[in-house]
Specification:
With about 180 residues, the chain is an alpha+beta fold. Helix content is about 60%, strand content about 15%. It is rod-shaped.
């Protein structure tokens, strides 16, 4: 069998190996070597080098995987966020907050109270009998509707704000978990 001539990568001692060999231990310095064959050359490489390279590569793959996981989490959150945002009366989307929902509800309720006071003072001079009598009740009653609407509105946007906060917390937690891995 014809042997291939090689040089030890570690100590440069000449080595002879069968053409099918993939690994060789240097007879001179006992270093374990891997035999590399390219079209134009044949050479040896330290096994530790290879192990290091493999480790480096697997680390890089881990990094890539972690990055794509983070990207996936970010994209998911962007879509969820779009859905959870509220539209104001000008058509602008914004993040719902507990503060603004409470303030919005209070504003409507205050308007309702003012309405009731004004309605009572306006209708107080109306006669208690006849076609105008019902307006004494109906007119101020609209104010109560406003207050009810304000409370309902506030509660529902408060709920939306809570939903948003929960989703955001979940997103941040997911991101932290992904970073830790
Ligand atoms: Zn050697």
């Amino acid at each position: 069998m014809e042997l291939e001539r090689l040089i030890c990568h570690s100590c440069a001692a000449p080595l002879e190996v069968p053409p099918s060999a993939r690994y060789v231990t240097c007879g001179h310095c006992s270093t374990q070597l891997q035999i590399r064959r390219t079209e134009s050359a044949i050479y040896t490489e330290l096994l530790e080098d290879l192990a290091e390279k493999t480790e480096e590569l697997s680390e890089r793959i881990d990094d890539l995987a972690a990055n794509s996981e983070l990207n996936a989490i970010d994209n998911q959150w962007q879509m969820e966020r779009e859905k959870l945002m509220v539209r104001d009366k000008h058509g602008n989307r914004h993040v719902p907050t507990k503060g603004s929902s409470t303030a919005g509800g209070i504003a409507i309720a205050v308007f309702g109270c003012i309405w009731i006071v004004m309605a009572i003072s306006i209708t107080s001079s109306a006669p208690s009998v006849g076609p105008f009598a019902t307006s004494k009740v109906l007119f101020p009653a609209f104010g109560v509707l406003f207050i009810a609407f304000g409370i309902f509105n506030s509660a529902s946007s408060f709920k939306k704000a809570e939903q948003y906060e929960r989703a955001e917390r979940r997103y941040k937690q997911q991101r932290r978990d992904a970073n830790r891995n």
